[in-house]
Amino acid sequence: MSDYQHRTVLLDEAVDALNLVGERVNGIYIDGTFGRGGHSRLLLSRLGPQGRLFAFDKDLQAIDTAAQIDDPRFTIVHDSFATMREALAARGITQVDGILLDLGISSPQVDDATRGFSFRQDGPLDMRMDTTRGMSAADWLAIVPEQQLEKVIRDYGEERFAFQIAKAVAARRAVEPISTTRQLAAIVAHAVKTREKGKDPATRTFQAIRIFINKELEDLEQGLIAAYAMLAPGARMSVISFHSLEDRMVKQFLASKAKVEQPDRRLPIRAVDLPQPLMKLIHKTKPSDAEVGDNPRARSAVLRVAERLGSAP
After folding, report:
1. Strand 231-241 and strand 302-308: pairing?
2. Model confidence over 187-200: pLDDT tens digits?
């Protein structure tokens, strides 16, 4: 078990929003990103004796932490939340009473230099959430075409100096392998001439490469579709995002389910036959000043909550 500590962001707000009341306390719930288990433990404390909680995570350290929860109502799955439909269908479950997704990278992942997520500490340039699968950041940087690298840094990091950074990376790897976080951070710092006050030049590039290596946006797109399909009528989804790309995807997905195209008012259509929204937007919440003061990593978090309407698919 890691010695690094993690503070769960918007802990009570995200769980409160799932509305575990009445018969729902004995329902089936999904924590799509177990992390270090803050949300899962609070959910378990509110579940009734017949309730079930399925948690997902790609990170082996998270799986090890989850294995310490001795509760027959709890099941941990070593996989992305994007696979929730298949994973639960294999257990005979097609509908759930609530889903929580905390899309942030956990503090232990950032603080542990051996994981390669942080530009503040020197370590191997890995960046994989699941170190048993896929290509490390170092291996990818060694072979990625310069134009693709520029696109990843620009699109996933929203970095305006993507061209200069990609060019600098290509020049350096022609001389020596880029295998550590400090090497990459130094390359980026040299290529980026200006940056917002208080923000490290490498922030956006590290974010972009991490998102690409772990297929985070692809997982989110598939996960949102799966989550909506699994929600029972009246069930809610709580999603916490930490950067604009994620939040934009969540916002647009929920909005697409909450709004419907209405036919021309001049057409003779009864009110009961008009298209109905599929979800109801409950609220958007940000961390309080007190939480941000206690945990600065919470400052960019946004919680969006929506409820499934109508009948099940």
Report:
1. antiparallel
2. 999 999 777 776 88
